[in-house]
């Protein structure tokens, strides 16, 4: 195992990054201030209006949502990661992520912000010419102009680059005529500009299109299950005249622009989910501590403690995973020289972390989904009522598994990224496998020993990495090129990798906490590490067996199953999960809030 964690799944062959991850324990004063400002804005201005926003109210002619967007723009929260020379605050990705986390409590608003300041603005920030940046970024940073991102079409959803919208060069040499239909566009009703993707002689290309141009029409608001306060419409372009200087990047650069911007969108989606997880835990803890049945607060019932512990431990893992990634991306960006190719190399950095961004997206969406389900059950009948807030969050959360690439597509991205880096030597997988194979041959495989209070979870992580590596190696060897059609195997492997990354990040973050003065908090952090490792080990064990049974031919099964059993044996340790969950829940009940 190596110490350096390379992007694209390199954590699989690296030591647990003890002392090497960014986490909220390392927030600067400026970052804490951004967290406070965002939280206060949400609590004072947005959450009280969250229910009313579902009806898309107007303030005069202006949608209230747009006026909130401008207010948040005045606070600098929309321009935090835009360059200073274009009136941005020039902060790093972790600071932008902190803001995304603290936009909790109203996913309709967070979606509006994300479509505008993220996928609607960053393509210009990264791929725009100096003239384009100077013209658009200052006004987007304040939301004087609202943006949207128009990629999806009726026939091009997950297959996002297959769009049929066209941009035909006009004879005057100064304009393109754009025609086509975009579907499901967030901010569609009120955006002033759109990043539109269109085919230029078969090359998919991005344009900045002003939506008050002749030939643009907006469809009716879609009637949705959730994020009802956000706008979702189609946009129809009928020979819309767009100046050539509004082309973003070069012809054919749409894949680069569209997919790399989605990586950032996925990261921010994970952070948005994290903020809502904590918000929902606090609501649930408050409710469980005040609601009495059978003469005591329901929080004291063992079954509810287990439920609260699940919510807390999985949120801790998401937190550790997400900030570790934003910190790794910032560290990689900090090494880049700010010369002419800075923007390109920045984008290359996001591409390198595509696998990790997909993990954060999937874990964010699904952690919040399970947590809200548990939170509603904990609330009993009241959880079903709009007034208790979880109902809206649960409806709103459904979209998290659909947009920014469905979770299915993200799982395929995780597997694809891993396979590519294994086969292309992106990280030293071969060397890692050689050690595992040699140890198996020599009968030297045993549970690795580690030191310190987290020795057991650290050993779990190391054992888990060997099981995952062995399994994915078998899948690649046995299936060869045919792996492309083995999507169920790919999904099983992706879930194993997700489990390992949760374990690894959780243990590293727990280590940051356990030296603190609060003994109960320390014990809870250690219990969380045990919990996440136990659950991770269970997923990894089950999935490894399923993969091997599927990919290994009958004749070779015995030896492979024996090898896997040996590796799994090192992952197996006794954890009293019932006791662990009580420790986690008791600490939270005592603290009265999520405390990590
Ligand atoms: C509220 C809302 C807001 C949105 N905002 C925007 C926006 O601002 N801009 C924008 O451009 N788009 C936006 N979208 C579109 C969104 O990104 C797409 O809906 C999403 O990418 C899925 O595409 P689709 O709906 O066509 O589903 P499909 O691609 O038809 O997928 C249907 C099912 O098939 C599965 N599937 C598809 N391909 C594969 C495959 N290769 N292997 C296995 N399974 C597969 C999917 O996982 C899914 O389960 C939004 C959508 C919604 C609902």
Which key terms come to mind for this protein?
four-stranded mixed beta sheet; binds flavin-adenine dinucleotide; 19 helices; Butyryl-Coa Dehydrogenase, subunit A, domain 1; Butyryl-CoA Dehydrogenase, subunit A, domain 3; 12 strands; 4 domains; Butyryl-CoA Dehydrogenase, subunit A, domain 2; single chain
Structure explained in plain terms:
There is one protein chain. The chain has 596 residues and is of the alpha+beta class. It has 4 domains: 24-146, Acyl-CoA dehydrogenase/oxidase, N-terminal domain (Butyryl-Coa Dehydrogenase, subunit A, domain 1, Orthogonal Bundle), CATH 1.10.540; 149-248, Butyryl-CoA Dehydrogenase, subunit A, domain 2 (Beta Barrel); 254-408, Butyryl-CoA Dehydrogenase, subunit A, domain 3 (Up-down Bundle), CATH 1.20.140; 428-591, Up-down Bundle (Butyryl-CoA Dehydrogenase, subunit A, domain 3), CATH 1.20.140.10. Helix content is 56%, strand content 10%. It contains 19 helices and 12 strands. It has helices at residues 29-46, 50-53, 64-74, 93-102, 107-119, 122-127, 130-142, 254-290, 302-334, 342-352, 354-378, 390-397, 407-423, 429-441, 455-479, 487-513, 519-551, 557-571, 577-591, and strands spanning 58-59, 62-63, 147-150, 166-169, 175-186, 193-200, 203-210, 216-218, 232-243, 247-248, 292-293, 296-297. Strand 1 (58-59) and strand 2 form a beta hairpin. The longest helix has 37 residues, at 254-290. The protein is globular, with a radius of gyration of 25 Å. The mean pLDDT is 96.
């Amino acid at each position: 195992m190596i110490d350096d964690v390379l992007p694209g799944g390199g954590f699989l062959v690296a030591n647990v990054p003890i002392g090497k991850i960014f986490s909220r324990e390392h927030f600067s004063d400026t970052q804490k201030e951004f967290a406070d400002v965002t939280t206060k804005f949400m609590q004072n201005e947005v959450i009280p209006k969250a229910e009313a926003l579902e009806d898309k109210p107007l303030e005069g002619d202006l949608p209230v949502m747009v006026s909130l967007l401008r207010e948040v723009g005045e606070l600098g929260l929309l321009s935090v990661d835009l360059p200073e020379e274009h009136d941005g605050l020039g902060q790093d990705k972790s600071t932008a992520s902190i803001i995304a986390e603290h936009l909790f409590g109203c996913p309709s608003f967070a979606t509006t912000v994300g479509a505008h300041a993220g996928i609607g603005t960053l393509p210009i920030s990264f791929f725009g010419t100096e003239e384009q940046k100077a013209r658009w970024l200052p006004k987007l940073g304040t939301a004087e102009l609202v943006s949207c991102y128009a990629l999806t079409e009726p026939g091009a959803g997950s297959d996002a680059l297959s769009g049929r919208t066209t941009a035909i060069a006009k004879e005057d040499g100064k304009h393109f005529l754009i025609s086509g239909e975009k579907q499901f566009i967030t901010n569609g009703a009120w955006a002033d500009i759109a990043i539109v993707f269109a085919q230029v002689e078969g090359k998919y290309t991005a344009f900045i299109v002003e939506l008050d141009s002749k030939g643009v029409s907006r469809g009716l608001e879609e009637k949705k299950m959730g994020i009802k306060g956000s706008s979702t419409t189609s946009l129809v372009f009928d020979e819309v005249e767009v100046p050539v200087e509004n082309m973003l990047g070069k012809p054919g650069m749409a894949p680069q622009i569209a997919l790399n911007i989605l990586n950032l969108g996925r990261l921010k989606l994970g952070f948005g989910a994290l903020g809502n997880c904590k918000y929902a835990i606090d609501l649930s803890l408050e409710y469980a501590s005040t609601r009495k049945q059978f003469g005591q607060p329901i929080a004291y019932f063992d079954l509810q403690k287990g439920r609260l512990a699940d919510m807390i431990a999985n949120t801790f893992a998401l937190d550790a995973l997400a900030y570790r990634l934003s910190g790794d991306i910032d560290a990689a960006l900090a090494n880049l020289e700010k010369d002419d190719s800075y923007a390109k190399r920045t984008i290359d950095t996001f591409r390198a972390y595509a696998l990790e961004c997909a993990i954060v997206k999937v874990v964010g969406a699904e952690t919040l989904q399970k947590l809200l389900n548990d939170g509603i059950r904990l609330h009993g009948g009241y959880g079903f009522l709009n007034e208790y807030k979880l109902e809206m969050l649960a409806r709103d959360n459904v979209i998290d598994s659909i947009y920014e690439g469905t979770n299915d597509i993200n799982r395929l991205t995780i597997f694809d990224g891993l396979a590519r880096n294994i086969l292309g030597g992106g990280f030293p997988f071969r060397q890692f496998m050689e050690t595992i194979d040699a140890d198996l041959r020599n009968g030297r495989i045993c549970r690795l020993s580690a030191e310190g209070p987290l020795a057991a979870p650290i050993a779990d992580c190391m054992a888990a990495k060997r099981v995952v590596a062995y399994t994915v190696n078998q899948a690649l060897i046995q299936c060869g090129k045919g792996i492309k059609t083995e999507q169920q195997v790919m999904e099983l492997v992706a879930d194993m990798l997700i489990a390992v990354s949760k374990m690894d990040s959780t243990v590293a973050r727990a280590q940051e906490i356990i030296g603190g003065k609060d003994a109960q908090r320390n014990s809870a952090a250690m219990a969380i590490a045990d919990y996440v490792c136990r659950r991770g080990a269970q997923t990894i064990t089950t999935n490894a067996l399923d993969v091997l049974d599927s990919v290994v031919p009958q004749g070779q099964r015995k030896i492979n199953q024996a090898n896997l059993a040996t590796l799994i044996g090192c992952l197996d340790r006794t954890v009293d999960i019932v006791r662990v969950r009580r420790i986690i829940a008791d600490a939270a009940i005592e603290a009265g809030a999520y405390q990590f």
